[in-house]
Structures are given as C-alpha cells and as structure tokens.
Amino acid sequence: MYLRSMLYVPGDDDRKLAKADNSGADAVVLDLEDSVAAANRPVARHKVRRFLDERPHRARNCQLWVRINAFDDSALTDLAAVVTAAPDGIVLPKINGPEDVSRLEHCLDALEVRDGVEPGSIKICAVATETPAAVLRLHEFAQARLPRLVALNWGAEDLSAAIGASTNLDATGQWALTYRWARSAVLLAAKSAGVQAVDTVYVDYRDTEGLATACRESAQEGFTGRVAIHPDQVAPINEQFAPSDEDVALARRIVAAFDGSEGAVGTVGIDGRMFDIPHLKRAQHLLARHGLLPNGTNDDGTPSEL
Length: 306
Ligand code: COA
Ligand code: MG
Description:
By secondary structure, this protein is of the alpha/beta class. The protein is built from 11 helices and 10 strands. It has an 8-stranded parallel β-barrel, surrounded by 6 helices. Strands 9-10 form a two-stranded antiparallel sheet. Strand 2, helix 2 and strand 3 form a beta-alpha-beta unit. Helix 8 runs parallel beside helix 9 (234-241) and helix 10 (245-260) packs across helix 11. 41% of the residues are buried. The structure holds coenzyme A and magnesium ion. The site of magnesium ion (MG) has 5 residues, from helix 6. Residues 34, 93, 155, 157-158 line the site of magnesium ion.
C-alpha cells in the first residue's frame, strides 16, 4: 500500500466527496476530524459510511482511508460507524505516543471480528507531531511493534496551537526550528519503524509549482509521500514522489551488477562510477517501494523495508 498522495476530503461535503473518485490520489482520506465542524460530525459519519459502503474493495480505484477524531474526543464513535464498511486504513490524529496506535490496533482487532471484516486488513497512519509529548517521544517508534502501522505523518498547525505559539514560521517564512526539528524526527522515526514518511500539507493550493519544488526536496530527503488538500495537488505530488525513468534504470543496473557477482564483491563500477553496498540498498529500496523488485515487497505490496 504505497502512499505517495493522501487527498483529504471533508466527510460532510457532498460536492467534494463526488470529486474524490477520479482524483488520481493513491489514497483518499475521508475526514471526520478538523475539516468538519463538530456539529456536523454525525452527518459526516453517515456520509462517510455510505461512501465506503457504495465502494466495496473490488470497486475501489484508490485506497479509501478515514481520519477519525482523537481518543480523548470521538474516536470510538467514529470507529464504530466506519469499520463495518472496511476502509483501507485509519488516520489517527493527535497521538501522545505509540501506545495510542497500539490502542487503535486493539480496537480494530475487535471491530473487524464484530463486522466480518478481514482480520488485520485495516492499516494505520498516525499523525505524530500534534502534541508536544508526541514529538519528544518519537524515538519510541523504533522499538514499538505495531503491525498495522504503515505510515507516519507530521503536521505543524496543531503543534503550534498546543504550544501556544502565535506562528510556526520564522522571519524568512520557513518553518521555525521547532517544526523543522519535529519534521526531521518524524522522518527518522518512520525509517526506524520501517514505515512510510508522509510530509505535511502545502497550504497554498493554487501554487502547484511551489508544491512540486517542495515535493522534490522532500522526496530527496527520504519522505515517501505527501498530504494533499485540493485535487490540483495530486498530480504534482504523484509525479515528484515517483522515481524518474533514469533512477529506475540505474537502480536496476546496480542490482543486476551485484546479482552477477553472487555476493562475492562489495563494490561495482558502472559507466565509470563506483557503487557499493549503501548504493545497492538504496537501489533495492527504490525498486521495492515501487513494486519493481518481487523479492523486496510484502504480500500486500508494502515495502519490506524503507
Ligand atoms: N477533495 C475533493 N474535491 C475538492 C477538494 C478536496 N479536498 N477541494 C476542492 N475540491 C473540489 C471543489 O468542490 C470544486 O469542485 P466543484 O466546483 O464541483 O464544487 C473543485 O474541486 C475546485 O475547488 P476550488 O474552488 O478550487 O476550491 P474550494 O474553494 O472549493 O475549496 C478548500 C478550497 C481548501 C476549502 C478545499 O480544497 C478543502 O476543503 N480542502 C480540504 C481541507 C481539509 O480536508 N483539511 C484537513 C486536512 S489538513
Ligand atoms: Mg489537525
């Protein structure tokens, strides 16, 4: 389940829900949290449930996820409403640490049985930087055993509200140090847990050129995907988080060169350039991530290691 683009759609908005089917996003995230006014949540739950019911797995042309509310809010009511319609995954916001993900895993264990949904089929993406405690504890993901967790995502808006900051930007308009630090920590936490690292929203949704540049940099840093809030953001995100034809060709040549040596060498030369074991690993990851290396992927298509 590769997640280059995750398009958020407010769960109570019929016009936007209607646009979700052909968005081209790897995952549509039907939102029950912050894009829905609290008074509209019951309506949103009903609409999201119906949207999923009308699109059973065989009829889905992208993954259908649901962002529920936090555990100290209406998480359980949200889950009780949507699990029966077998979403591909749940986005869990405002976590305090890995134990919240673990709690969600237990809830899903029970609800999948209750509703006759395939056990273990519903995956989790945690929004891991929305409380100060969660940021300080990101290193714990390295040891956490969370079989449903496939991605970590970060966000700056709720963190700045929780901190009591009046802005999350510095004088040059970049993320202030606290948020850059949180972002890097999420990247490392995701890699140490062997899950995908999903970069945050690019709020200026008319500026698709700026978005493409930001995604290119983010992909070079090791992020594997990005949140989208508008359909126009999906194509630039998909493009920038997919490897170029040249990248794929080179990765294939590196893997082939090492395969040819049958484990006897640690370094190869290709077109006058030296490639050693870290290059081989990076090439294998790239091919595995995009489903191009049969031995490098799990049954469900997730990379066995990122
Ligand atoms: N998903 C699906 N369709 C969307 C969409 C989204 N996230 N955002 C916009 N659209 C649709 C609009 O409904 C419109 O279609 P329509 O004319 O048939 O109604 C079309 O795309 C063009 O939209 P546009 O007029 O450019 O934007 P807008 O003013 O309608 O909406 C936002 C702007 C920011 C309010 C909207 O993009 C949005 O709600 N995004 C999601 C916000 C969210 O989920 N935030 C939480 C996660 S961080
Ligand atoms: Mg939020």
